[in-house]
Amino acid sequence: MAAKKRTARKTAGKQTAKKKTARTTARKTPARKAGGKRARRRRVALAGKRSKATKKIDDLTLELIHDQAREVHQDILKLRKPDLEFPVRSLANVSYSEKRGYFEIGKQKKQRTLTVNTVRNFAQTLRMMGLSKDLVEANDFATKRDAYYQSKNWEEAKFDDQTESDTVMDDIEAMFSLSGVAREQLRFVPDEGYNGAVAGRLVVLDPDRDTGRIERIDCTRFGSGAYSIPSSVEALGFETNAKFILAIETGGVFQRLQSHKFWQSRNCILVNMAGVPSRACRRFIRKLSDDRKLPVYAFVDCDPYGISNIYRTLKVGSGNAAHLSQFFCVPKARYLGVTPQDIVDYQLPTHPLQPVDVKRAKDALKNDPFFKVHKPWRRAIEQLLEMGVRAEQQSLAMWGLNYVIEEYLPAKLRNTGAFLP
Amino acid sequence: MAAKKRTARKTAGKQTAKKKTARTTARKTPARKAGGKRARRRRVALAGKRSKATKKIDDLTLELIHDQAREVHQDILKLRKPDLEFPVRSLANVSYSEKRGYFEIGKQKKQRTLTVNTVRNFAQTLRMMGLSKDLVEANDFATKRDAYYQSKNWEEAKFDDQTESDTVMDDIEAMFSLSGVAREQLRFVPDEGYNGAVAGRLVVLDPDRDTGRIERIDCTRFGSGAYSIPSSVEALGFETNAKFILAIETGGVFQRLQSHKFWQSRNCILVNMAGVPSRACRRFIRKLSDDRKLPVYAFVDCDPYGISNIYRTLKVGSGNAAHLSQFFCVPKARYLGVTPQDIVDYQLPTHPLQPVDVKRAKDALKNDPFFKVHKPWRRAIEQLLEMGVRAEQQSLAMWGLNYVIEEYLPAKLRNTGAFLP
């Protein structure tokens, strides 16, 4: 401990004693150390072995960051005020494209020009881009919180709280999203504790970050457990002969389907979203369904939260992060159930809708571009409001704990054409 | 759908048309169907193949349920009022045993005698025990919510809301806990969406519920992903040469340690608790550390929540579920960090303690039997209150994203004797 104490103090001293420009310090941050050495030795080479696809996107990301930095640098050399341009991230700059199937960010832009007033924020933005560059080179990642704490060593450019650093990160993401680069490709990953679990007819191919050797993860071989999705799924590949992906709201139903090997009898892949799916979970489902051309069926509670928060977020993204929808939403997703009509057909036990449920449902009908273009959804939500009740997916347990496996899901899967859009 | 509709209605009709005693209906609930047939055919035989250890505890559980039912039955035959006896579940009936290392339930009992006023609750208790018996026989499980919905078919004995059914379940658990049987052995599992993730030098042995064949799950082979712990871990076995278990609060730190294979360089097992550990997560760590005689080190945020909610719950259990502590707490756990002294030694960036933090810390010092008996803890909490700040485990990222792997954890692990108790 004593030795450690001294080292920590020494390092701290080193970091705070010297005043450097933001640019210079960027080269000395400890984060840089691991990958930095290798990068210096081989210049263009990237740390670790990467697949061709990963290398391609990493090269693109680095090129985009370099281009931005070069522009700023040249402006300065020519004694012009440098500026950075970001898409406006607000609902007013979002549209729903029925053809593409997700919320899209519009054409409005905001500029950040280097002035006396903006110098701190401008420097922070460049440092954050520099961190991303370091991470790509080192084949590493940082959570949003990691990035915030990393900045504590950026002297005047440090963030006072995480909302500040999150905003700068969002701006950078939005900027690069216009070139088709997602947050995870910038090597920023969410702070979420849990990213969802998977079981079933799927082999995940995960390249080792040092050796590049592919780990084959067979999701039929987890007994009663499951595969826990990592924070970043960009490098993953997939092998599967499954017929569909079943995205499930609750851990209870997932555990039942997994324990009774529903994926075996129905040749499918089960995903436990555990409520509103995390970004990693949505990106995983999206990549898997795109790569392997698999339909995605959502199985959630029949209430305005299950429909308009969980399902809608999975399918078309969320309004205030529209710059991410192209990467994270799952336009292929369709709604298996529980539908308002199921409450009638299966005589499910219900709970009365609370005022917050009614408000959420009415909001969806009135303001949500997704529900506005889909008539079957408007009818379903109106039916729910008329009945004045909601039903959970586990309410099927009234007819037997395994009724969901033996009766409900088979009946539903006989008529996938009837699923809500 | 049309065919399904008819079946659902028919079943519903069957269930509600006939009036039967609670006892008779128990035999006809759909839950019973799957395991029931086999049980009737072979009497004592249980569905599926089970390990010797599982069979032993299942036989004990069934015997205890039968004994209780027999007593009630004989009282009725002798025209005596039957009664059931439960331990009182309240803080007043809890003590902290330093020797055993967990909160223990005391000797106070409450009786539930069958009278006109208690008939519904009495019937519900017997039905819930009957459900447990069915589940053990069928080698199946029910979440708390499953059990609630299952009761919707118990006619007059149905529960009006889940708090009612949870209370009855808790009473039954407390009753059987006196004979060493845990909730998971009664086949009741929590509703939690997420049970924690594992990576590292561990092979989990999970017997297939139908064939008994052991699935070997190698937790070094998950790439950047991890093993997701199932709701019930009772049947699991373990193979490992690891030196310790590192229980981690945040997904961010877990992902970093997993991606950089900290478990390989330090020969250990990583567990992501994702906040306050779920019951399945605690039971998993407990079983693993008991079976393989492994020390458990907790790595959480340095704040009153991390110390008194996350760590204390992991180590000694929680006051209002003391009847479970003997199964779920991890008395072997020790506190690696982040300690209040680490904030000083590592010059960590901090946040001010909020009033809720101060209240929690003072409560711990004044009322919590665990902290009261451990002087080093009292000193540490007092130090935190004096400094008036808290620090997150990710704040180590200030010194470099991988400082936690390269410096902090190695320094800590050189002196495990200094860990807080």
Describe the structure.
Two copies of one chain form a homodimer. With 421 residues, the first copy, chain A, is of the alpha/beta class. Chain A is 47% helix and 15% strand. Chain A is built from 17 helices and 17 strands. The first copy, chain A, has helices at 2-17, 22-26, 30-42, 52-77, 119-138, 144-150, 162-177, 251-259, 262-266, 279-292, 304-316, 322-328, 340-345, 355-367, 369-373, 375-387, 403-413, and strands at residues 83-87, 94-97, 102-105, 109-113, 142-143, 188-189, 197-200, 203-207, 214-218, 226-228, 237-239, 244-248, 268-272, 296-299, 333-337, 351-352, 389-390. Chain A has a six-stranded mixed β-sheet with strand order 10-7-13-12-14-15, with helices on both faces. In chain A, helix 3 packs across helix 5 (119-138). The longest helix of chain A has 26 residues, at 52-77. Chains A and B meet through helix 1, helix 3, strand 5, helix 6 and strand 8 of A and helix 1, helix 3, strand 5, helix 6 and strand 8 of B. Strand 10 (226-228) of chain A pairs antiparallel with strand 10 (226-228) of chain B.
Short description:
The structure is a homodimer of 421-residue chains. By secondary structure, chain A is an alpha/beta fold. Chain A has 17 helices and 17 strands.
Number of DSSP E strands of chain A:
17
Beta-strand residue fraction of chain A: 15-25%
Shape of chain A: globular
Name the poorly predicted regions of chain A.
1-44
